[in-house]
Specification:
The chain has 2 helices and 14 strands. The protein is mainly beta. The longest helix has 18 residues. It is globular and about 60 Å long.
Length: 238
Amino acid sequence: MIGRILLFLVLFVATLVWRFPYEEAIADRIARLEGRTGVQVDYTPESASVTGVEWKDVRVTTRTGLKVQFDQAKLRPTFNGMSAYATQGKGQGRLLMGPTGDLNLRMDQLNIDSGSKVFGQMNVTGNITHSFAKRSGEGSLRLVLSRHQIPLPIEIETFESGNRLFWQDRGQGYELRIEVKVLGGAEFSADGNILLEPQPGVAHKLSGNLNIQTKLGKRRLMPTGTWKDPHWTMVSDS
């Protein structure tokens, strides 16, 4: 008798797990993520099973115009949250969304379109975390910029920067502060801060101050304008 009850319970649980609406659960979590962040997620579904939901041709676009594409992605619903793993050639990304409204994103060698002709394509490695409850977050990223159009005092096609990011909702949008340290080989280095401030109905205001050291001496590069349409002022630092 006990054996039959146990068998029934095992079969009942197995049936629930097998018939769980994984696609609907993932769609619900993605919709919540899009609503909270303004990120748009497009994809082609491939399969859904007890091991998770699989997508291909995944495209993610942010409000600021950043775009990243993945060849494949595997997503699994957790208790009121989600875990996701996506691949892009040699690059990969991992996302954890918890039930308390926290996001944790890890990126490894991801190629991301910055959404700006000036900044161009970025290769990104690092971690970011975001709290929906506090409406703030932070991250640590290594960026490699190639084919950029930033007016540096010497010609450097590709350079690497280490960045600490901090953002906070200011009521009319998120303010983003970036601590930048740039390495461009033996002939170039820079450090400073970049600030993106929200403005009602228009693109974020860009400002900052980068101290640049080259073989030609010291310079200061001050960006203004917006992320998509930046302007630059270069002055000698005597």
